[in-house]
Amino acid sequence: MSATRSSDDGVTLSSFSPLPWQHSLWQHFTAVHDSGRLPHAVMLSGPSGLGKQELADAMIARVLCRTAQGKPGAAACGDCHGCYMLAAGHHPDLMAVSPQDVGKMIRIDPIRDVNRFVAQTAQQGGYRVIRLQPAESMNIASANALLKSLEEPGANTLFILLSDMPSRVLPTIRSRCQQWPLVIPSAEDSLPWLSEQLGEDAQSLLRMAGGLPQLAVRLGEADQRQLRQALRELFDALVRGGEPVAEAWRLERQPLSQVLWYGIAWLEDLIRMGLSGNTAQLRDPSLEPLLRQAVKNGRTRDWFKLLDFAREQRRLLAAGGNPNPQLVLESWLVRWAALLRS
After folding, report:
1. How far apart are CA 92 and CA 6, in angstroms?
2. Considering just the CA atoms, what is the radius of gyration of the chain in Å?
3. Among 23, 36, 76, 143, which residue's CB has the most CB atoms within a 10 Å radius?
4. CATH 1.20.272.10 boundaries in the chain
5. What is the CATH code for 221-340?
6. Would you give the distance in Å from CA 113 to the centre of its chain?
7. Can you give the three-state secondary structure of 181-243, one letter per residue?
8. For 18-156, where are the alpha helices, taking DSSP H only?
9. What digits encode the pLDDT tens for the residues 15-40?
């Protein structure tokens, strides 16, 4: 587990400002900070792809900045000693806690480090800040160990917890945090920024991402384009009668969680189209011919069963489970093939 007194992902000067669609929440944060009403614990929640990490970095930078407070809406200055320490990744009054490996749990030892950190005086004379993510990755022992610090944090202490799935966070942890949910922004708020990242593909990728701007950026990367192409070729082969276990080679070395993410998105589109006949809401319109073929061959209730299977496997992965990726993939494809040919 990692529990360091610096940002675990290298906060940089460019991280000191929130993203454009976070303006309202940022204004609220700076107002309570400037008025001295900053809560001791905040939980930023919402689906992955909304920029919780960037908002947390901007909040941390402003709290640790020596000059930003009292300037409505202002981000951290980027020029003071505190900002330079933060940008260098070695601020002594920041502790970042996260699992050492994706999908693993935050256990009790890093939380004990947090409790010792909270008991100390801030070295720079300001706030002590603890960023913990994802909050749902704490096991029961670590969550219970954190409760005392959340209940009695001492003056000038700020916990920032990030969660994709707050319902999986221990209720006693949630109840001790102010809940600051991030919502999916309108295309009007996110497209200008996204167009700078993706160019002319911004709108189609935002649609594919379900409105999540940073997920759209991820979907535009070369490895994701290659994965989508491999999936299309695989399902085309299944429709033509290909043997699913033999065709699974097309997805060799692809992350199972990402494969399942696409499968879930496609199944949701398939079910909507099967129930309504409407194709206007398809996330990926290029899949319409394949989805029409699937609708023709399968029954909606069977697609729901396949969707449940994919969601459960992805949930197990997110919860730190360690299923055999090849067996899960082959089982999933066998079910697809059976429905495509029924």
Report:
1. 7
2. 23
3. 76
4. 221-340
5. 1.20.272.10
6. 25
7. ECCCCCHHHHHHHHHHHHHHHHHHHHHHCCCCHHHHHHHCCHHHHHHHHHHHHHHHHHHCCCC
8. 23-34, 52-64, 81-88, 108-118, 140-151
9. 688 999 999 999 999 999 999 999 99
Which residue type occupies 295? V
Q: Which CATH class is domain 2-183?
A: alpha beta
DSSP class of residue 6? Answer: S
Alpha carbon distance 272, 38 (integer Å): 44
Q: Per-residue confidence at 175, pLDDT binned at 50, 70, 90?
A: very high
Q: What Cα–Cα distance (Å) separates residue 284 from each residue in 38, 148, 207, 208, 270?
A: 42, 48, 7, 6, 11
3-state secondary structure of 123: coil
CB 279 within 8 A of CB 288: yes
Q: pLDDT of 129-168, one tens digit each?
A: 999 999 999 989 999 999 989 988 888 999 999 999 999 9
Token pair 């949630």 is found at 174
Neighbours of 271 (CB within 10 A): 18
Rounded to 10°, the helix 23-34/52-64 angle is 20
